């Protein structure tokens, strides 16, 4: 799909405010509502817009400890990785799971929990019990310096 300036403006605007009405979106980008809605639907159908979500404050929910966990696996087989990915996908505290290179680890997880006791439980009773996990290295987030969800657009 070729993106023109209107498509890019729609994407920029929605990344900043996913709840904007079609009328307000159309006014902001300089189109009438009907063509704006057609463009929006085309962006959704093309898979450029994958969904709409609310951003929730973790600390206000009592989830004040964030950690990055590097995971090493015993075997580098598709079956072992698929099993790990399926199991870790079932853990609600895991916000992000990345298969990585360039480290002494195979995966990086971003997790959020209430406190250190909850982290210990998550790590010892759930993550390290996944078949194939042989090494774990944790780093704790002191402060979020940059925290954005919007992608850079041309």
TrEMBL record:
InterPro entries given in the database record: ArsR-like_HTH (IPR011991), AsnC-type_HTH_dom (IPR000485), Dimeric_a/b-barrel (IPR011008), Tscrpt_reg_AsnC-like (IPR019888), Tscrpt_reg_AsnC/Lrp_C (IPR019887), Tscrpt_reg_HTH_AsnC-type_CS (IPR019885), WH-like_DNA-bd_sf (IPR036388), WH_DNA-bd_sf (IPR036390)
UniProt GO molecular function: sequence-specific DNA binding
Keywords: DNA-binding, Transcription, Transcription regulation
One of the GO biological process terms: regulation of DNA-templated transcription
Source organism superkingdom: Bacteria
Transmembrane parts of this sequence: none
HTH asnC-type domain location: 3-64
Pfam families reported for this sequence: AsnC_trans_reg, HTH_24
One GO CC term, this protein: cytosol
Protein name: Lrp/AsnC family transcriptional regulator
Organism whose genome encodes this protein: Azospira restricta
Source taxonomy: Bacteria, Pseudomonadati, Pseudomonadota, Betaproteobacteria, Rhodocyclales
């Amino acid at each position: 799909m070729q993106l023109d300036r209107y498509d890019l403006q729609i994407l920029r605007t929605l990344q900043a405010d996913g709840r904007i009405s079609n009328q307000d979106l159309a006014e902001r980008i300089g189109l009438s509502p009907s063509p704006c809605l057609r463009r929006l639907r085309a962006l959704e159908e093309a898979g450029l817009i994958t969904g709409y979500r609310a951003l929730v404050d973790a600390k206000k929910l009592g989830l004040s400890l964030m950690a990055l966990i590097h995971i090493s696996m015993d075997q580098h087989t598709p079956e072992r990785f698929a099993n790990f990915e399926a199991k870790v996908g079932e853990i609600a505290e895991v916000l992000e799971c990345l298969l990585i290179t360039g480290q002494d680890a195979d995966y990086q997880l971003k997790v959020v929990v209430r406190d250190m006791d909850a982290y210990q439980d998550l790590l010892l009773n759930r993550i390290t019990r996944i078949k194939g996990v042989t090494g774990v290295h944790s780093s704790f987030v002191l402060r979020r310096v940059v925290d954005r969800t919007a992608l850079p657009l041309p």
